[in-house]
Design goal:
It contains twelve helices and 16 strands. The protein has 399 residues and is α+β, with helices and mostly antiparallel strands. The chain is globular. The chain has a single domain, classed as 3-Layer(aba) Sandwich (Beta-lactamase).
Amino acid sequence: MNHNVKRPLIAPFRPWLVCLKGAAALAFALASYSPSRAADWPQEKTSGADALVANFLNELDRQAPERPKTSLVYGVATARGLVASRGYREAAPGVPATAHTVYHVGSLAKQFTAAAVLDLIARGATLRDGTPISLDLPMSRVFSGVAHWPGLRTDLDQQPITLRTLLTMTSNLPNFTRRPPASTDPWGRIAAPDLLSEIKKLAPSGWPNTFEYSNTGYFLLAEAIEEAVLPGEAVPKSHHRYLREAIFSVAGLAETGFVGEPVPGSVAAAAIYRTKPVFDQPDWLKGSADITSSVADLARWNAALMDRKIIPADLQKEMFSDAARVTPETYYGMGWFIEHGPDMDIYSHSGLVPGFTAYNIIAAHPGTSDWISVSVLINTDVSEGIDVLARDLLRIAQE
């Protein structure tokens, strides 16, 4: 393993910045949004969306004229299903981009990992020794060799490391994709047990209960899933198997799989790299950014969450809670950024991995079943713009 490489300190894994740059684009939607009006999608809305996408793709072409043309797909969904979708250009040579084309969705995977953990809690899962799985379960009960991770708050200088703090990114454990362990090669492969061993050496640092965007926590959550036993079962399931059986199948996701493990017969977009691929080998992004999906499946996913087919109401409330303050007006729940308007809430997340960028946003009226979502997938890695595009598509949907 090469130990003399120049190590990336920040980019390319800062999707929370992408999520926060769309505040201006959101202002109009927060003031006048009506989800039910998006059920109609006339030609003028398609034309408006076409113009937005054309500007976005033309700018990508201008920035990198020597690279292949980037494809893009968007989908607009309500409780009625996918009400509008459109693909632009070829996702791979000879393969047109459609609502069913599969892209890497990057950190949108965190939504699925969070849902799986909450589902385990709802089902009464335990550790192998019978310890109940709960949001406040200390990670020192799950993993050996982490006695230096505080399990219960004993003073103001210690932050408990629990399922809850991992889910809400308040564990204070360093983000390993920002500062990779010295013994690892971010451009090479790593096995999950080896990465877990390195992460166990980390010590929490920072002010207690503060937000720090981190892939470390969601890797640990995937590992914790593999330590959980459901009632009536003898052994845990792998992270991938649990998501397939308990999450993907329940939500009706026919095109959602994992990086390196796509759904048989699915049609995949080809990656277009704007930067040298880093952290793109299994299992670097286990639990945090290892899922592939389509906008058709993301529409089903959003519907399953909002209709509480995946997790019950009390745990859904935890997922969409103001658990960690990110900015004065933005919070992080569990796998989602949260914003509040006068009469609506916005749940969103971006995904950025080598060769792909994604964005998923849901707007909902609290206390009702009225909601709308916009999902955007592209097959290149861009650090800005997709959030504004998605929110502008949301604005068009509500006009």
